[in-house]
Specification:
about 210 residues; alpha/beta; DNA polymerase, domain 1; 2 domains; about 10% strand; globular
């Protein structure tokens, strides 16, 4: 049985990725890099905004030096308007609490972004406050396995006794490198998660059984 759970944030706890990727798609087009939504998702899902900046410039986008802080400001403003939880998250946390299984968050997003999105849901934020970790701020963004190993240590368990809940191949690759079993949330289907060794599922209601609860 899993003894601790590590959640990614965007696309796993909060449904923040579609509006964020749409915004990035439009912005890159305005700077000369035409990609559709699927292309942006394939290239950048699970990464970092500084990583998008570097990759987009290499692909020909004419991005100013201030782009990272500028796009972050726009993303934060957009997400403040309304960022819903992924369906089933409150009930899943209830099940983990009832089983006395600790959990935390390991995300490539900034702490500020997680406070903006998760903070809109006070009951969820109450359970996670003090338990959110940013790979960017720890200088170990996924696919670096260091982030998930760090969170496992925080939770007091060996990596092999934890589970990572991810929605991106980048995050699944980090979990695999960290020696942590990964469960890939893919409501629309994502074979790339399975390619990275994740056990794929499409509803949070199915996860307790997969975790042995």
């Amino acid at each position: 049985m899993i003894r601790a759970v590590i959640f990614d944030c965007d696309g796993v706890l909060v449904d923040s990725e579609p509006p964020t990727l749409d915004l990035i798609t439009r912005d890159l087009a305005a700077h000369g890099l035409e990609l559709d939504h699927d292309g942006v998702e394939r290239l950048f899902l699970g990464g970092t905004i500084p990583g998008v900046f570097r990759a987009a410039r290499q692909l020909g986008a004419d991005l100013p030096e201030t782009w990272v802080q500028d796009i972050y400001a726009r993303i934060y403003a957009l997400l403040r308007q309304h960022t819903p939880l992924v369906p089933g998250i409150p009930g899943l946390l209830d099940r983990l609490d009832a089983a006395k299984i600790p959990y935390a968050v390991g995300s490539n997003g900034t702490t500020e972004k997680m406070m903006i999105t998760l903070g809109q849901h006070p009951d969820v934020w109450r359970r996670l406050e003090g338990r959110v970790f940013s790979g960017q701020e720890l200088n170990m963004p996924k696919p670096d396995p260091g982030l998930y190993r760090h969170v496992a240590r925080f939770l007091g368990h060996d990596p092999a006794d934890c589970a990572v809940i991810e929605d991106s191949p980048t995050g699944a690759r980090a979990a695999r490198a960290a020696g942590i079993p990964c469960f890939g949330y893919a409501p629309g289907g994502n074979t790339r998660l399975a390619d990275e060794g994740a056990t794929v599922f499409d509803s949070m209601d199915d996860l307790p059984a997969l975790l042995g609860l």
